[in-house]
């Protein structure tokens, strides 16, 4: 744990997760779990988490097992898939957050993958509201035009070859996504090759898990997202058939910016135009 203040949170199977907590100055008005995008380290969300703490919320970030600060010394042979990230890692973080803010509403802010895996979290009923940011299905044929053929190259050439050679996905070395356990990367690849993403690959049991979510969801997506098209966004949220949903799609011009993209929302430059104007109101109503 090289990051100052990092804590280890034990999942139900004993696997340690690296987490950072950002407490407010006084009693918290609520607690927010920041659920990361695929291959994105929790430190990427630091400025946003610090802002949340200044606004009176207890914020928490973490890295899924096998990634970021939760990565073992040797990733080859380390077993972890996306289901474990939801069922074990996210569940442990929700419990840890709830224990630090008893009686306060819990909010889920999921970036990209973080908005896809809510159905796999067994204790999700604790959540007052989920906010998905730049979340879409990942199906490569519906990706934004600028990335579609790069996605084809990744899924049909780079990923299979790299997994075979290294036994994990060396994303940092390849400058694609990040280092990922082989199981998680293989599973994600299968999902991204299917029109119905996880539901299409994993079957009716996963469709039922999406349908079982009744947590109110607010989706924030962006016209210039280089990965997620409007169709990607509509597709994944369409599986949440029983969850109240509000879909907000914003353009950079709407907030006086030149660009937002897939990762831009969490940059400190958007504190006023996006965080305060479009997200904070969602954390004061549940």
Please give the CATH class: Alpha Beta
* Alpha-beta classification: alpha/beta
Mean pLDDT across the residues is: 96
Strand adjacency order, main sheet? 1-2-4-3-5-6-9-10
* CA-CA gap between termini: 35 Å
Radius of gyration: 18 Å
The helix content, as a percent range, equals 25-40%
Please mark out the parts with pLDDT under 50 across 5 or more consecutive residues, or reply none. Answer: none
Q: Report strand %.
A: 15-25%
What are the secondary-structure elements, in order, as H or E? EEEHEHEHEHEHEHHHEHEH
- Any idea of the CATH topology? Rossmann fold
How can the largest sheet be summarized? 8 strands, mixed
How many domains in all? 1
Provide a count of the helices: 10
Question: What can you see in these coordinates?
Answer:
The chain has about 290 residues and is α/β, with parallel strands linked by helices. The chain has one domain: 3-Layer(aba) Sandwich (Rossmann fold). It is built from 10 helices and 10 strands. α1 links the parallel β3 and β4. α4 packs antiparallel against α6. The protein is globular and about 50 Å long. The two termini are about 35 Å apart.
Fill in the keyword field for this structure.
37% helix, 10 strands, two-stranded antiparallel ribbon, globular, Rossmann fold, alpha/beta
Describe the secondary-structure layout.
Layout: E1 7-10, E2 16-22, E3 30-35, H1 46-54, E4 57-62, H2 82-100, E5 106-111, H3 113-116, E6 127-133, H4 145-166, E7 168-170, H5 171-174, E8 179-181, H6 182-192, H7 197-202, H8 204-212, E9 217-222, H9 230-238, E10 245-250, H10 271-283
Parallel strand pairs: 3-4, 3-5, 5-6, 6-9, 9-10
Antiparallel strand pairs: 1-2, 2-4, 7-8
Helix pairs in contact: 4-6
């Amino acid at each position: 744990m090289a990051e100052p203040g990092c804590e280890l949170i034990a999942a139900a199977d004993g696997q340690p997760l690296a987490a950072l907590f950002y407490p407010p100055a006084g009693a918290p008005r609520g607690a927010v779990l920041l659920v990361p995008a695929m291959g994105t380290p929790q430190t990427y969300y630091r400025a946003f988490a610090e802002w949340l703490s200044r606004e009176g919320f207890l914020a928490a970030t973490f890295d899924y097992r096998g990634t970021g600060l939760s990565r073992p010394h040797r990733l080859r042979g380390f077993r972890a898939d996306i289901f474990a990230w939801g069922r074990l890692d996210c569940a442990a973080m929700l419990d840890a957050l709830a224990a630090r803010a008893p009686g306060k509403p819990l909010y889920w802010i999921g970036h990209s993958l973080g908005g896809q895996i809510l159905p796999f979290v067994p204790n999700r009923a604790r959540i007052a509201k989920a906010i998905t940011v730049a979340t879409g299905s990942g199906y490569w044929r519906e990706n934004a035009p600028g990335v579609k053929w790069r996605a084809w190259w990744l899924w049909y050439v780079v990923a299979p070859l790299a997994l075979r050679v290294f036994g994990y996905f060396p994303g940092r070395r390849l400058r694609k996504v990040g280092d990922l356990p082989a199981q998680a990367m293989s599973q994600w690849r299968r999902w991204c090759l299917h029109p119905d993403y996880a539901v299409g690959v994993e079957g009716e049991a996963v469709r039922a898990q999406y349908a079982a979510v009744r947590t109110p969801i607010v989706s924030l997506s962006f016209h210039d997202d280089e990965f997620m098209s409007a169709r990607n966004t509509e597709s994944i949220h369409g599986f949440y058939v029983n969850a109240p949903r509000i879909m907000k799609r914003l353009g950079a011009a709407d907030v006086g910016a030149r660009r937002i993209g897939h990762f831009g929302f969490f940059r400190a430059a958007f504190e006023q135009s996006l965080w305060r104007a479009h997200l904070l109101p969602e954390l004061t109503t549940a």
